[in-house]
Specification:
mainly alpha
């Protein structure tokens, strides 16, 4: 996380630094990124950079978390639109994510993130939608789900469902980037996997 000194900056300066970091992490992966390029585009000194961040990883995860927060809000909006249909919501959300991650503004940033996936990147991308039930964010999501459509007995089961669906969604997105799948083929494959989960693997 950035240091408090970053959050104390005026909004326009914070946005300029985030934009500079995003530009660099879109050019190359986190591991190849240059702090020199970030501070040049942000028009700050190297000393100022280290007043705001411990290292370039802090800057990268600031950009990533900013984008992920947008997607968490979108998932809630989709749940409202589908009247709490969880599987239908995940399909629509997956289609949205494919478009969001591959649009001109975002595609290089996420390509570098996905093709250099680390445990921390994966955790950051999935944490908001699969946190424990005492998470306020997760409680807000649970309230929007139509529980009557699910074969569950307790709320803890919802958390288990998300622990399956969220990593599945992420792995399909990464595969889509890695194999350069078409939108249609990626969605078709994802739907098949969700159908297996929805219908179960055992005959009644």
């Amino acid at each position: 996380m950035p240091k408090q000194t970053f959050f104390n900056l005026p909004e326009d300066k914070k946005e300029k630094i985030i934009a500079a970091a995003r530009k660099e992490f879109s050019r190359v992966s986190l591991y190849e990124a240059s702090i020199s390029n970030i501070i040049k585009d942000a028009d700050i000194s190297r000393g100022s950079f280290y007043q705001y961040f411990e290292n370039k990883e802090d800057a990268f995860f600031l950009v990533l978390e900013d984008l992920i927060n947008i997607n968490e809000k979108k998932f809630k909006d989709i749940l409202k639109e589908t009247q709490g249909d969880l599987i239908k919501s995940f399909v629509i959300f997956y289609e949205y994510l494919l478009q969001f991650f591959t649009c001109e503004k975002n595609k290089n940033f996420f390509k570098n993130a996905f093709l250099n996936m680390s445990h921390r990147i994966e955790q950051t991308m999935t944490s908001g939608l699969k946190k424990k039930n005492n998470s306020e964010k997760f409680k807000g999501i649970i309230k929007l789900i139509d529980i009557s459509k699910l074969n569950i007995k307790i709320n803890e089961d919802i958390h288990t469902i998300f622990r399956v669906l969220v990593p599945l969604t992420t792995s399909n997105i990464v595969e889509s980037f890695a194999k350069q799948l078409s939108f249609e083929k990626s969605v078709e494959s994802y739907k098949k996997q969700l159908d297996i989960i929805k219908n179960g693997i055992y005959k009644n």
